[in-house]
Structure formats: structure tokens, C-alpha cells
Design brief:
Layout: E1 2-7, E2 10-23, H1 25-28, H2 34-39, H3 41-44, E3 49-50, E4 55-67, E5 70-74, H4 97-103, E6 113-115, E7 128-131, E8 134-137, E9 143-147, H5 148-155, H6 158-161, H7 170-180, E10 184-187, E11 192-193, E12 197-201, E13 210-216, E14 219-225, H8 232-235, H9 247-263, E15 267-270, E16 279-284, E17 287-292
Parallel strand pairs: 5-6, 6-9, 9-10, 14-15
Antiparallel strand pairs: 1-2, 2-4, 3-4, 4-5, 7-8, 11-12, 12-13, 13-14, 16-17
The structure holds zinc ion.
Length: 295
């Protein structure tokens, strides 16, 4: 349930919230035709697609970074006991994420930074937990870094106007309690978090999505949020998820990300891929292929 890898001097640990064959391909990736999916069966099955059910595997995971004395949590999953009516997989979870954080050397009170790629509900949930009758910051001694353009988008109510409310109730129960507690920092591309995460523009999936790059002793990794939901988007970068708010910008961000990840041999650390949950982008012909990570 947890995997660890060194990137130079920086330790990265994967924390598993859940994974399973939860998504109808047409729902998650409306641009993906059944024929195209079938033609990728050999490498997509069974870790990314279950042909017998015709369901895509979707994982929700968090990442922990140990760098010097800093302990950083990157994206915070769905969270426990969050009311998410209409979303059976996310509603009222009772998972062991806190126990696994402890096992990974990141007990909540020792976490120094929380870095969020974007503010969709499956990336902010563990920001808070239900304690003493209210949603309370899970990491009491951390600064929480919120992508500014996502925050402004939600704060102005535009997330509700544009018919794509992937932010959902989480803005009220998982983001605003952090802001109200004075624990938030607005995040913009070009910043650095905890002396080790470089913040890069990755908008398109959401208005303010960012990615976090680690560079240490000649090695590189990138926390890529939802630039890709499923590795088929590495082979077919034109395929957006149904949750990408700006389709053209999401494709442009994905293409630039794939080219740079391949050319720089960057380890890609996404949130939603199936087993082994991370990997490399390699050039193949005029395009790209996915190389799963051997932990
Ligand atoms: Zn997501």
C-alpha cells in the first residue's frame, strides 16, 4: 500500500487511498473510442482497463516528500467521511490514509507543507478531517499551498456556473476551513515549495492546475496531477478527460508535458494511474509510450 523511491537526495512515498475498475471509458475519457481502446488491449489490460467489464481502473493516491527537514504531502485524495452524494466511490469513505501516512514517516503533526496540484474534490479531501464537530485542518503545523487561479475560480462561484462542478462541496469542507484558519498560501507557477518542489503551469484540466518538479543530484520527477488520468493519454495525448475544463489548453499542456518528460527522463508521479501507479514517458516513432516504474 506504500512504495518509496529516492530522487537524488529526496525521498518520495506513495500512499494508496483506493483503486479499482470504477469508470466507464466513455464517462472518464469521452474522446476515447472503443476501437482505439481495443487496439491498446495488450498493454492496457489488466492494470489500466478491465476488458471483461469494460471499466477503466482509477486510483486515488497521495504523495509524501521527505527533503531535509521538510515533510511535504502532495495532493490529499478524497478524505474520510466527506459527504459526496451521487458519487458512490467517494461518499463517506473510511480508509487508512492517516495510518499509512504515519507508517511513511509523515504523521500529520510533523507535516510541514501541503502542496495541491489543483482543487478538484479528489485532490483536497484530506486537507481536513471531522474533529470536535467541524472540519479541522488535518495537518495542524503545515502551510497549505493552493493554486491561486483555481481558488479564485471557485471563490467567484464560476465553478458552479459553468456546469462542470468537479470542485463540488469540497471547496466548503476541505478548502475554506484552511483559508479561514490562516494556513493557506496562494500558489503560482515559478514559486518553490519546501526548497525542493518547483511549481510549473499545467492549466487546462482546471483553471489553475500546476505541476511540481523535483530535481536532485541529476535526477528528476514530476507530480503531474491530472495532466493525464490514464496512461492511454500518453499514447494518445489528444484524449482529454471529461473533467478538463479548457479542452484545447489541456491538450497543449499534455503535449508539452509529455515531450519534456521524455526528453528529460523525468519520473512521472500522477494521481490516478493503475499499478504500478507511476512511470516514464518514452518516445516511440512520432509519439510516446508509457514505461511502468519498477519500484
Ligand atoms: Zn483527479
Amino acid at each position: 500500500m506504500i512504495d518509496t523511491r529516492m530522487i537524488g537526495d529526496v525521498r518520495v512515498t506513495r500512499i494508496h487511498e483506493y483503486s479499482g475498475p470504477t469508470h466507464d471509458p466513455k464517462f472518464l475519457l469521452p474522446d476515447l473510442s472503443q476501437e482505439l481502446l481495443e487496439s491498446n488491449r495488450e498493454w492496457m489490460s489488466p492494470h489500466h482497463w478491465i476488458p471483461l467489464m469494460n471499466k477503466l481502473i482509477l486510483t486515488v493516491q497521495l504523495w509524501v516528500v521527505h527533503a531535509g527537514s521538510n515533510i511535504i504531502v502532495v495532493d490529499t485524495g478524497v478524505g474520510n467521511r466527506k459527504p459526496r452524494e451521487g458519487m458512490a466511490r467517494m461518499h463517506n469513505l473510511n480508509s487508512l490514509v492517516l495510518e499509512w501516512l504515519e507508517a511513511a514517516g509523515a504523521p500529520p503533526d510533523k507535516v510541514t507543507h501541503v502542496a495541491l496540484t489543483h482543487l478538484h474534490m479528489d485532490h483536497v479531501g484530506w486537507n481536513t478531517r471531522w474533529l470536535d464537530g467541524r472540519w479541522t485542518p488535518t495537518f495542524p503545523n503545515a502551510r497549505y499551498y493552493l493554486p491561486q487561479d483555481d481558488f479564485l475560480f471557485c471563490e467567484s462561484g464560476r465553478n458552479k456556473q459553468e456546469g462542470l462542478d468537479v470542485f463540488g462541496a469540497s471547496f466548503e469542507d476541505s478548502v475554506m476551513p484552511i483559508v479561514d484558519a490562516g494556513m493557506s498560501v496562494m500558489l503560482k507557477p515559478g514559486m518553490e515549495i519546501g526548497d525542493c518542489l518547483q511549481v510549473e503551469d499545467a492549466r487546462g484540466h482546471s483553471p489553475g492546475q500546476v505541476a511540481f518538479r523535483i530535481r536532485s543530484r541529476g535526477e528528476e520527477a514530476i507530480f503531474s496531477g491530472d495532466i493525464c488520468h490514464n496512461p492511454i493519454q500518453i499514447v494518445h495525448p489528444e484524449i482529454n478527460s471529461g473533467y478538463c475544463i479548457w479542452p484545447d489548453q489541456a491538450r497543449k499542456t499534455r503535449m508539452e508535458f509529455l515531450a519534456s518528460s521524455a526528453d528529460r527522463e523525468t519520473l512521472v508521479l500522477p494521481v490516478h494511474f493503475g499499478n504500478p501507479y507511476a512511470g516514464f514517458v518514452r518516445r516511440e516513432g512520432a509519439g510516446f509510450r508509457f514505461e511502468p516504474l519498477l519500484w
